[in-house]
Amino acid sequence: MGKVAFNQLFENLETYVNPALKTTVLVLSYGQNKARCQVKEFYGRTFEKSWEQLFAFYRSLPSNIAYYRIDLITEEQTLSFEELLESIDEVKRNNYIPFGIRVEGFKKRLFLKEELVANAILIPSKEHIVGKNRPQLQFSEKNFKNYIKRKYNIEEYTMNYLLKSTIHTFKTQAFFIENDTTYELLSDDIGNQVRVIEETNFQENLDLVIERGANYLLDQLDETGKFIYGYFPCYDSQINNYNSIRHFSSLYALFEAAEFLADKKMIQSGLEGLLWGFEHLSEVNQGEFLIKDFDKGVIEYKLGAQAMAILAAAKYTQITGDTQFFENMKTLTHTIEKIFLTKENETIHVFDENLKIKEQFRIIYYDGEALFSMLRAYELMKDEEIFAICKRLMSHFVKHNYEKYNDHWLSYAVNEFLKHEEQDEYYQFGLKNALNRLNFIEKRDTAYPTMLELLTAATKMILKLEVYDNRQKVISDADFQDAKNRIFEVMEHRAHHEMVTGVMFPEFSMYFKAPYKIEYGFFARHDRFRMRIDDAEHFLSGFVNFRMLMNGSE
């Protein structure tokens, strides 16, 4: 980082100095993307004194540092250790820590909120179930001591000194520097502090996230065509499960991104993934061609797995014109009709290894996935037998009020169905599927990427409805305009919210164990920052479809 950039940082940070604080604290995070960054704090009675210390230390560092981040403490609240524990216990989601912690007394310690979460210093209780109950966060004594050893090079044998220390929770103003480019960081109340993304630079950042995120997903494909399934990034722990649905659905998202980016290498790698999937995840059972899955070593046949294999193959075919998977798509649609669809048009979600019904219903995703995938196959193959199956499913979903599920795959499916057959009831179904949960979607604090997917599909449907001859029989002009404006408004909000809460920008990834593996990937913060291939899939599909809508195309 050059002297000019550093001088500019001095001026930028100086404007945020809080004169009410007795001590000015600056924190320098620095490192290379091969390992967790180092963090060092500097204390002074004035901003200038703290800055002098920081600058002298900076000049002693080697020249090959990849990035720096400088935080200035701007707000502090003093409390006892017992009060700190109460504040931590009030946090409603795992890793949603809105403050850093500073300790004064017998020992000086300081932890940015990024350090707290990336080193799992605060962990949930054993009773915590993601999405079901509060985490009841508490200190992990083991992780606390391990990080003290790494950061301060001191063996910490006890945490008892915290009981007699003065504790401060704090917030900061921060700037991140990479390749001599300075980014102001914006903090929020759920723990994220990433670059400022606003209307003037939103599209630029969206394009960056799609390109880098697609390449992140591509990097998870090995040379055979199998994915690295995912990571828990705090300690670079690889997730060793595998799932056929997520294999094929992640390929679908990769093909979507490859089409948008016009990336032939990405398409070729996706093809290898398809070939691997059909070779290793399929089998013939009792004369039927099926995609299989494993649950703790037990074979299952899921409706969603058949559907995702069709969808990924259809997307590859659509963008390349290569018809080598036509037979697979045709056979799998036959499998869905014969095995997974009853004469009453009800779906069966899961069979056991002997093709006995294991679960009639497991998750609503499977129904929309089945309809959407077969519609994509029909569009390519023009096989009226396939469309007849789709018509049976669509009619069943409408008759039995499936819009109550507010599912993104159903949103995809109804929008796709309307390409081939328009009816008032289908539009009404699609509107209810999206509109009935808009307030919840707007206020949801987690990244929850399937919400953006639902809204992009609903927006495409709204654009069809706008020119539909019978629109006024579906919805009045005034209500239509209100619905259109509301869906667009919430969609834009969700796109921004997802970007700042679910993308592993380098200013955040630097605090984890192996930044180079996870930069510009996508994470589920409340589930130990889980980064599975399907997390990347949902984020990418939503962002790509949103970006295409911004372009005025589907």
Structure description:
- With 554 residues, this protein is α+β, with helices and mostly antiparallel strands.
- Helices cover 49% and strands 17% of the residues.
- It is built from 21 helices and 19 strands.
- The chain has helices at 3-14, 47-60, 81-89, 113-118, 141-152, 202-219, 244-261, 264-280, 303-320, 326-340, 365-381, 384-399, 408-417, 424-435, 438-443, 450-466, 471-474, 477-502, 506-509, 515-518, 533-551; strands at 24-31, 38-44, 67-79, 100-104, 109-111, 122-123, 138-139, 166-178, 181-187, 193-195, 230-232, 237-238, 282-285, 288-291, 293-295, 298-302, 350-352, 357-359, 531-532.
- A hairpin with a 2-residue loop joins strand 15 (293-295) and strand 16 (298-302).
- The two termini are 42 Å apart.
Low-confidence stretches: none
Radius of gyration, Cα only, in angstroms? 26 Å
Q: How much β-strand is present in the residues?
A: 15-25%
Q: Please state the average pLDDT score.
A: 96
Number of helices: 21
Largest β sheet strand count, sense and barrel closure: 8 strands, antiparallel
Category from helices, strands and their pairing:
alpha+beta
So what's the overall shape?
elongated
Features:
alpha+beta; 19 strands
At a glance:
The protein is of the alpha+beta class and 554 residues long. It contains 21 helices and 19 strands. A hairpin with a 2-residue loop joins strand 13 and strand 14.
Strand and helix map with partners:
Blueprint: H1 3-14, E1 24-31, E2 38-44, H2 47-60, E3 67-79, H3 81-89, E4 100-104, E5 109-111, H4 113-118, E6 122-123, E7 138-139, H5 141-152, E8 166-178, E9 181-187, E10 193-195, H6 202-219, E11 230-232, E12 237-238, H7 244-261, H8 264-280, E13 282-285, E14 288-291, E15 293-295, E16 298-302, H9 303-320, H10 326-340, E17 350-352, E18 357-359, H11 365-381, H12 384-399, H13 408-417, H14 424-435, H15 438-443, H16 450-466, H17 471-474, H18 477-502, H19 506-509, H20 515-518, E19 531-532, H21 533-551
Antiparallel strand pairs: 1-2, 1-3, 3-8, 4-5, 4-8, 6-7, 8-9, 9-10, 11-12, 11-19, 13-14, 15-16, 16-17, 17-18
